[in-house]
Amino acid sequence: MTVTSGIVVGNAFIDNRNYLLSLSLCGDTLTHNISDIFFEIPQMVSRDLAERAGISASPSKRTEISARVEILKQLREVERQIAQAYCAIGSRNIALYPLVRSRNPNEWSTVTVPQAAKLISNTRESGYPTLLASHRYLMKHIIEFVPHLTSHRVVQTWAVRPQSHVDKLVAVRDMIHRSDPAIDIFVAKASSIMTANKKRRLDSWNEPPTREPAMDVHYTAGDLLIIDVLHHALRQHRDIRIDPYSLVVTTILKKMEVAEVVDSGVLHQVLVDLGHLAPWDDLVSRKRELDLSHIPDEESPNIIGDNHIVQKNLTRMATATAHGNTPLGPEDFYFRDPVEHLRHDFGNLPVYVIDDVGAEELDDGLSVEPIPSEPGAAWIHVHVADPTAVIPPAHIFAQKARQMGSTAYFAHRTWPMLPVSLTQSELSLGAKSQSGQPEHVLTFSFKIDSAGNMADYKVRAGLIRNVITVDYNSVDHLLGSIKKYEAFRPFDLERCSSLCVTNLATEHVDNLRLITEMTSRHKQRNINSSNSFYSSLPKARITITSKPLMGTPIHSLVPFHFNGFPTLTYEVVGQQMQDSGSRMVISECMKAACRVASRWSFDNHLPMLRRSSKPPVCLGDPQALDKLLAMRDSAGYVDFYAVQKSKLYIPPVEHRLEPAMHWSMGIPDGEGYVRVTSPLRRYSDLVAHWQIKHALLHPRTTTALFSPGWLTGYAPEIKKKEKEYKRAEQTHFSFWSHLYIKRFMDGPHAAKDRHDPLQSLTAIVSGVRPNDRMVSSPIPCYIPSLGLLGSLSAPSIAAYAVGESVKVRITSVETGLQPRLHLALRT
Questions:
Q1: Where is the RNB domain (predicted)?
Q2: Residue 78: DSSP 8-state
């Protein structure tokens, strides 16, 4: 691990990834990810000077040499100022940790770099030298301060470790340094416990999951101290910084002789074998950064409190008369719907809510109205659940929703953004119409003409009364839709999922067929008129039968005896599933509603945060994009490996106020895309709803509820949350799919005639070897039949091209927080 300063002088595109090239303090050219940057100073040197420096390892032109000399001169001057500021911090000899740690010894806190600089430096105004010196102070104190795992460069916020964690870690490290006999005593005791638990797990392999306290296990205070520290050590860590727990984990696990190489996967298995983690405990949802409670709902003080607030408000709304201008408290719902007098009543118009069987939040439905005077044209209405009819922007539920960002969906449990007691009784579509009450919605309507164009659009607060709930499979069956892509179950080829079809009247089938025809025509028109394409690989998905699946309490010091394991279903699911049949209809209608929201907001001069993305940049063949567009199928998809070979840089999604292009959605510049269709599960959609309804209430005002400044400040928050949840989702399903495969391989009672898809695996090379000179450097591969990536160990002389097929076998499976399949060539 090397920490250095540098100046960014260029970019490089390697294996379809964008890297930065920086000139280091020593004069070397470094290639690295943008995530490797922990602190940045914008425009420290001019752009012209950086470009003149070149990007080659050894400068060949005099202009490059002189530019690099000038850059290094400026860089060393900055380093001198930073060193001076760091010495000034050291001379004050102020310990930062006691000033910023939580008062609760078991709770984390946070500190930003500017906050730290004010506390430990002697300057009132913190310039870049002082800020970077303070950053280095935080980097040096590895036990007390933890940088953000993925977004540290942007947020510049450090997590401050709880005092109890620090004390326990220091205590165990001291035990190791003085060779305390308690370490060996614990190791011996742990070994016998693990042996018994492994036998219990094997004996109950195919039983349902159960747990009971291990009353026969007795720990000393020293044992509990070690176990607690091992619990704290099980978390993701940036390799760029020394892990303060590595000494403890490596020393103790090496003494246990559990593995030659100790990593997070080995530590995870040790805690399972000790009975302190259930074999089915999900590691990702337990991450501190996600801040998800693992207390059962019926025991959670927060959920019990939220349910009380919901019940109190619903009772008052049902019994009280209008309260006029009575001020609202932080726990008060609106006394009456703010836009009640503006709502358009859709009467008995059928509203089709289409989702998966067992979907937990039904927040959108579709209606269609043909236009008799215009053959081939129709209005499609997207009715979106309207939580803002009862929840004010300053409500405690709104504050909690912002903190959470969105509902957290995991295979074993769902953490809703809004209280379930409120969504199920009042907000989820269909909840009120079953009892004859109208449902509040925000409706985004668009008119599709005979050519598939969006010819007109409207945004209205609405009332719907005729909600018909039906699942995707039923709609596809009723319409006779041909499914080109379905989920594939590699381990259950003979198991057919039971199809229970909901029958609908002919009127409803005809309406659904018309919606499908209009949506398909609109989608095809968009594909033909855009220069976008889709490209993705199918991915493994795990479904858990018993949900919610409860494991052990966080950092439980009480050991358990675990038996059995939950029933899992392993599927390989492709993005193309979303672009066929009824799933395509819902997807395209939601996209259209978001386009309508952007257009309407622009027409009404209403500031909105829009998602945008720029078109790809050709870094090799200038015709690469045109060639890929020529390969598109009818749904707009292009072969994944053709894209990998094309050397295209696809810019990431941004959040902007302007109605800019969203290339990946096929949305042109000037139109924009505002997410509005999921207010029950995304806070940003709630913000858009409040903004729109304020404009509906005050059509002549020029002052929006959320100002452009507020929205701009909120944008990084959205990006951070989206990145965290996307990363968590990927790691979560990767963890469960790898765990499934490991159990499949290790199963002690496997039937002799069972289908074994692991015996004939074929992988496709998905990237280049990171270092061709190293035999140990693996080749990234993708296994289509499993929907997983793997690392192929092959001789260094073996050269494989991206997209090439190779026969492989699995040599080992890593679980934990960094799951991985290790592959070897199959002969």
A1: 343-698
A2: H
How deeply is 397 buried, as exposed, middle or buried, from its count of CB atoms within 10 A (0-12, 13-18, 19+)?
Answer: buried
Which residues, in sequence order, are bridge partners of residue 158?
Answer: 111, 147
Q: What is the pLDDT of residues 104-113, one digit of tens each?
A: 999 999 999 9
Residue 32 lies in a domain: yes
Same domain for 259 and 370, yes or no, is no
The count of other CB atoms within 10 Å of the CB of residue 481 is 19
Residues of the chain above pLDDT 90, percent: 72
If you compute the radius of gyration of the chain from its CA atoms, what whole number of angstroms results? 29
Going from the C-alpha of 523 to that of each of 196, 218, 246, 413, 502, the distances in angstroms are 59, 65, 53, 34, 27
Let me know: does 735 contact 815? Beta carbons within 8 Å. Answer: yes
Chain center to CA of 566: 24
Mean pLDDT of 776-791: 91
Question: Is position 195 within any domain?
Answer: yes
Identify the domain containing residue 808 by its residue range. 756-825
Residue 775 scores a pLDDT above 60: no
Element containing residue 810 per DSSP (H, E): strand 805-814
In a domain, 681, yes or no: yes
The pLDDT score that the predictor gives to residue 772 is 47
Closest Cα partner for 569 from 500, 501, 484, 488? 488
Q: Which residues pair with 441 in a beta bridge?
A: 385, 462
Q: Are residues 582 and 695 in the same domain?
A: yes
| Collapsed DSSP state (helix, strand, coil) of residue 631 | coil
- Does one domain contain both 662 and 593? yes
Q: How confident is the prediction for the chain on average, in pLDDT?
A: 91
Does residue 162 surpass a pLDDT of 70?
yes
Assigned domain for 150 exists = no
Residues 719 and 779 in one domain: no
Q: Roughly how many angstroms between the first and final C-alpha of the chain, as a whole number? A: 38
> 495 pLDDT exceeds 70?
no
Max Cα–Cα distance, the chain, nearest Å: 90
Cα distance between residue 697 and residue 389, in whole Å: 13
